[in-house]
Structure formats: structure tokens, C-alpha cells
TrEMBL record:
UniProt name for this protein: Putative MFS family arabinose efflux permease
GO cellular component, one term: plasma membrane
Source organism per UniProt: Quadrisphaera granulorum
Spans through the membrane: 15-40, 52-72, 84-102, 108-132, 144-167, 173-192, 224-248, 254-279, 286-307, 313-339, 351-372, 378-401
Membrane topology: Multi-pass membrane protein
Keyword Transmembrane: yes
PROSITE patterns: MFS
Sorted UniProt keywords: Membrane, Transmembrane, Transmembrane helix, Transport
Limits of the Major facilitator superfamily (MFS) profile domain: 1-409
PANTHER family: MAJOR FACILITATOR SUPERFAMILY DOMAIN-CONTAINING PROTEIN 3, SOLUTE CARRIER FAMILY 33 ACETYL-COA TRANSPORTER -RELATED
Amino acid sequence: MTTQTSARPTQRRELTLLAGLYVSQFLGVGFFYTGVVGILRSQGASLDQLGLIQLLGLLWGVKFLWAPLVDWYGSARRGHFRSWLLVLQPLIAVCLLVMAAIDPVNQFSVLMVVAALVVLLSATQDVAADALAARMVEHGTRGVANGIQVAGGYLGNILGGGAVLVVYDVLGWAPALVTLAAMTVLPVWMIARHREPPRGVSPESRPSLRDFARVFRAPGVARWTFLVLPLLLIGVSSAQALVTPMLVDAGWSLATIGTFSTMVAGAVAIAAALATGLLVRRFGRLRILVLAGAIQAVAILALLVLAGREADAAVIAVIVCLVNGAYGAVATVVYTVHMDLSRSATAGSDYTLLASFAFMAGLIGGAVGLGVAASVGYGWVIVAAAVLVAAGVALAPVALAPIVRAAAPVSADEGEPVVDPAVDPVVALGRPGLVETGDPSWP
């Protein structure tokens, strides 16, 4: 009893640290994609310039290229991944302060260089944060941790793309960037207080580049990464990409769309992600993914009402919130599975590689959805998106069941695979050690 009681405050501190890290990493990203785009457009920037800002997202999608460096190098004395975070977090804040002195229109090229550096540092911070989370969060808490990650991303976008924009409207460019830098540096004190346990990986036993690709050799992982995830995420993102154009066509003002999409629908996604994290612990990954995916497919089909342009505004709002909420739930399960697959010696690279495939699938889906809609209309794209998501849901058990059973026998009580978290997946199996449990007390 004493051990369990003392473990709970530690667990709460760890989850609070993760929340701070995940919110802060999306502050700058949200500001660039929403706030800076609006600011530059209001000051006469061209659409070509705004398009360059959107291209910064590609850095996030290819962060797996340098993720092995985060796994290879780090301070054993200060904590391997903690040492990365102690450097990256202040550096991001410093770059934002430098940006405060830049004229965003007349010094656009300089702005882009600094913005690219912020995105690069934020992406690397994400690698270190994911690896730290994979190491310190127990299996039974991973759903909650990844719900916090998804919610933190949405909250970071809301604060960076919304709240900081309000500061800009009232006080101007420099105070807005100073505010952003101050919020970014807040988690540093939590990082400093955290004590990361030793990794147990000596420099001589560092994994090679070939070892990083072994994550795909575990049962079901290739089907999960290259079949199920593309179906799910291309379907979702192609439908989501249509929402803003359809709202414009329905007569919504840009201000209303911005407020609703960022604040209201984002808040729904946050709530859905946090709730899903708890449900994953209670009912398991597969069940919740199938449920969330089914809701996602139905919600996407409901967008046909919006495509008709005659729906009541309240009905439209409910449908869009349902689409966002379902995505928050799906993303939480997806990232939980990625954390399960992250091996102790290559946690940063494993999680990042899998997440990068998911990110690129979403990027492709959004571009394809808009392009096809221009030729055949919204309706056909919506139907196709729903079919893709439904296909992903139908195939999910084929890919996910072997993953959750890869390292453990089946529990006779719950009918779900259960794993011993003490098993090191790299040393003992050479593949991920996974667990699935329907027992809410685990562990």
C-alpha cells in the first residue's frame, strides 16, 4: 500500500511534465501556422510567402532522419533524454526572442530562417520527449500519457495560434513573441526537477542504423504502419481538409471559422483525447480504436450535410466537433501503440519513425483530398474518405492483435494479452514487449 501510494505522486509529476512538454512544443508551431499566416496576410504578404510557411511542416515529417542522434548521444549523469530537453527547451525560447526583433514583412527571409530553426528544435524536442515518455510511463498509463500528448498538441495550437494572436492585436509583434517565449520556457523547471533513471545502454552497445529498422520486423507492425495507418489517416485528413472550404462556401466568416475551428473544435478534441486515454486503460487498445474509428467514419459521412450548404449552423458545428473529437480519440490510440512498440535502446527513433509515417499519411491525405475535390466535388471525397477509414477499422484487428500479443500470453480472466513490464524488449526478445489489459488496476 505504501509503495502504491508513494508511486501515485511520482506518476502525477511525470504526467504533468509530459503535459508541459507537449503543450510547449506546439506553441511555436501553432503560432506559425495560424498566427503568423494571419499577421502576414493582413500586412500584404503574398500567398506564395504564406505557402513557404506551410512547407515548414515537412521538417516535422522527416525528424526520423536525425532521431537516432537523440538515442545515441546524451549525458548519463544528467539523464540521457533529460539532458536534451534541458538544452532544447531554452533554445526554442531564445529563437522566439530573436524573432521578436525581426520585421515579419520586410525581413521575411530572416523570419523564415529563424522559424525553420524553431520547428527543427521543436521536432527534436518531440523526439526526446517521446523517448522520455516511453521509458518512464508504465504500460497501464500509456493511454493516459498519449491522451495528454494529443490534448497538449491541441492546447499548444490554441494558445500559440489563438491566445498569442490576441496579444499581437493588443500589444503588437514583439510583446506577442516575448509572451510565446515565456510560455515555452515554463516547463524547464519541471525538467530540472525530474530525475531520469539510467538507461543501461553503454556507448559500446549503441544500436546501429540497421537496428532501428528492426521495429518493422515485429508481428503485425508492417501491416499496421503501411496498411492500417494510411487508410485511417489519409481518410481522416482528406475529410478534415475540406472542412474550412466548405464552411466558407456555407457563408461562415473567416473570424468565425478561425474561432470555431481552433477554440471550440480543439476543445472537443482535447476532451476526447483525455477520455480516450482512460478508456484505453480500461478496455484495451484494439477495442477503443475500432470504436473511435467507427465513430470517425460515421462523422465523416455526416459532412455530406455540410457539402449540401443548406444545413443549420448548429448542426454543422456538432458534425465538425464530432469529426475532431473522433480524430482526437483515434490519434490517442495510434500514439499509444507507437509507445508500446518503442524499444528501450531506440525509444526516440522507434516512436519518431512510426509517428513520421502517420504524419506523412495525414499530409498526403489533406493534399489529395483538396485536389480531388476540385475535380469531382466535396461529396465524392467525403464518401471515399469514410470508406478508407472504415477499411482501416476493418483491418485494424489483423494488424493490431499480433502486436499486442507479441510478447505475452493471453490472460484467462480478461481475454486480453498481458505482458510483464519487467521484460526488456531489446535484450529479451529483440522486439517490442507489449501488453494489453482490461484490468483497470494494471499495474
